[in-house]
Structure formats: C-alpha cells, structure tokens
Task: inverse folding
C-alpha cells in the first residue's frame, strides 16, 4: 500500500487540527489507508509543548497557537507547502519515520534541482531534524506526533513565504538558525522559483511509496 496524496488548498490551522483527529481515527480503524495531506495555512505561529514563552514573538500580529506535536515554534503561511502525514508505523520506531520523511523531502528537492541534506543531532544538543540547504540554512521543518502507531502532523517546506516573520521568534528552538526558501535558493542559481503545484507534485511523488517497516 502506498501513501495517497490528498490536496486541500488553504485551510485555517484550527480547522486542520480538528480534521486531523478524524484522519487519525480513520487510519486507526483501518477505514482509510496511509495519506499525505498537502495544504497551506493562513499566517500562524505554532509551537510544541516544550516551547518556553521566551521563544515566542512578543508582538507580531500573527496568532500563536499550541500544537500537540514534537518540536518547538515555527511559522506557517502563504508561500509555504505544509504536509500532514497520517500513516501506520507498523514495526518501525518513531525516529525511523522522521528520518524517512527527511529523506523523501530531500529526494523531492533534488527532483526540483536543489541540493539539500539532513543533519544528525548531537547527544544532548538542540534538535536538527528537518531539511537543510548549503550554508546550514533550514529549508523545511519537520514536527510529528506518533500515538498508538499512527503518525500525524508532518512538515513545512518554504517555497516563497514572508521570511521576515521567522526573525520575530526563536525558530525550532534554534536561536541562531537561518531559514531559507526555494525562492532564495533559486535566485542564487539564477533561475525561476518553482511554483507551488510543481513543489506539491515533487513532494507527493517522493512519498508515493509503501511506508517502511509496516507490519
């Protein structure tokens, strides 16, 4: 069984969270298979349970909403592709699924002509989960929740969002992180930024495979 693509367009973050609970319940009950939901959100800053108040924006005009996922604070908004992965993990471990998500995104970026990579987190260090571009710039954030063997939440790829928002708070618990976008990388290469549909197609194609480790 492969991961099925579901395109949703723009969905407000609270609505998506309500619907996600239903997607997870359907997967747990085996009334739906593995799915990747692709969408965008209106501007919102979301943060995981471990995020200290000092890492959130003091006053940005953008709502900050708690999220029941791993990871710290990040931004979602226009010009970004969000993917929520609802799959059965089977016999695999959560860390394996996160690494698979990273490698699938790296494959998608390569298909679009961009060199990216993943980074290992040092013991006791800040999490470096995500997809990185040359110069240790972060292109895509990954934050997932796995409960009872079913995953939810997922990733966000910066295509051409308003990058100044990322400077208003501590992104992903990394005070010195530099965020980047496909638009910035494309300018450096002297070419056009791939459009949202092209990025969605590349990401969906990269995930169009059986989930590893399923029982």
Result:
């Amino acid at each position: 069984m492969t991961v099925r693509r579901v395109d949703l367009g723009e969905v407000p973050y609270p609505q998506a969270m309500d619907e996600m609970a239903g997607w997870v319940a359907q997967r747990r009950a085996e009334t739906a298979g593995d799915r990747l939901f692709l969408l965008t959100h209106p501007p919102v800053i979301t943060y995981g349970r471990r995020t200290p108040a000092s890492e959130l924006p003091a006053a940005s005009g953008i709502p900050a909403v708690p999220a029941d996922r791993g990871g710290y604070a990040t931004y979602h908004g226009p010009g970004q592709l969000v993917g929520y992965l609802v799959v059965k993990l089977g016999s695999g471990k959560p860390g394996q699924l996160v690494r698979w998500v990273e490698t699938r995104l790296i494959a998608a970026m390569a298909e679009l002509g961009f060199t990216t990579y993943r980074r290992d987190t040092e013991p006791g260090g800040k999490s470096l989960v995500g997809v990185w571009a040359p110069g240790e710039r972060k292109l895509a954030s990954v934050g997932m929740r796995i409960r009872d063997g079913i995953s939810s939440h997922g990733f966000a790829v910066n295509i051409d969002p308003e990058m100044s928002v990322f400077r208003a708070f501590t992104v992903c618990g990394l005070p010195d992180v530099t965020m980047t976008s496909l638009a910035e990388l494309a300018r450096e290469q002297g070419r056009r930024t791939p459009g949202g549909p092209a990025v969605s197609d590349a990401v969906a194609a990269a995930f169009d495979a059986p989930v590893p480790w399923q029982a």
User: Anything to note?
Assistant: The chain has a mean pLDDT of 94. The first strand starts at residue 4 and ends at 10.
